């Protein structure tokens, strides 16, 4: 009595391997007559076909917990996103200061370079730095007539 084709049909129906399909010996005649996937589903519901549980650990579970050296993509993208947001914010601050005439071209170029090199952690850090710079600058003497 060869039930290989029935086992293949059952495996395809339930999405499992052939090794996991077990036919109950008392119901073999019914299983022989089954020719459709629906028949297989009905037989499983009735208990004529049993699907064994997976032995050992599932490969999927291993894959999820496994993290190699190359799997840092998510963090890289997050770091990049944070960098872009901060950079835009700081450049906008510099542009506003430029419009108000508080900064010179040379200073702006310097600050933009430092922003690009991630010297500033936040907007307040940049403001503090600019404040220190202004304190260091010798004030221009007014010409007396």
What's the main sheet like?
A: 2 strands, antiparallel
Domain tally: 2
Mean pLDDT: 84
Briefly note the structural class of the backbone. Answer: mainly alpha
Give an overview of the whole structure.
By secondary structure, the chain is mainly alpha-helical. Helices cover 61% and strands 4% of the residues. It is built from seven helices and two strands. It has helices at 4-14, 28-33, 37-46, 59-65, 73-100, 105-116, 123-136, and strands at residues 21-23, 49-51. A two-stranded antiparallel ribbon has the order 1-2. Helix 1 packs across helix 3 (37-46) and helix 5 (73-100) packs antiparallel against helix 6 (105-116). The radius of gyration is 36 Å and the shape is rod-shaped. 8% of the residues are buried. The mean pLDDT is 84.
Q: TL;DR of this structure?
A:
A two-stranded antiparallel ribbon has the order 1-2.
Features:
145 residues, mainly alpha, Non-ribosomal Peptide Synthetase Peptidyl Carrier Protein, Chain A, two-stranded antiparallel sheet
Provide the fold topology.
Blueprint: H1 4-14, E1 21-23, H2 28-33, H3 37-46, E2 49-51, H4 59-65, H5 73-100, H6 105-116, H7 123-136
Antiparallel strand pairs: 1-2
Helix pairs in contact: 1-3, 5-6
């Amino acid at each position: 009595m060869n039930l290989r084709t029935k086992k293949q049909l059952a495996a395809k129906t339930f999405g499992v391997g052939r090794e996991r399909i077990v036919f109950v010996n008392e119901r073999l005649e019914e299983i022989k007559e089954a020719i459709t996937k629906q028949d297989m589903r009905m037989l499983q519901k009735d208990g004529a076909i049993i699907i064994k549980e997976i032995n050992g650990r599932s490969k999927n579970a291993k894959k999820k917990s496994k993290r190699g050296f190359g799997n840092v993509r998510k963090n890289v993208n997050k770091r990049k996103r944070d960098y872009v947001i901060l950079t835009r914010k700081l450049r906008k601050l510099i542009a506003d200061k430029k419009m108000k005439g508080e900064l010179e071209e040379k200073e702006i170029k310097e600050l933009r370079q430092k922003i690009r090199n991630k010297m500033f952690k936040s907007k307040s850090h940049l403001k503090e730095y600019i404040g220190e710079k202004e304190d260091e600058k010798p004030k221009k003497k007014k010409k007396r007539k």
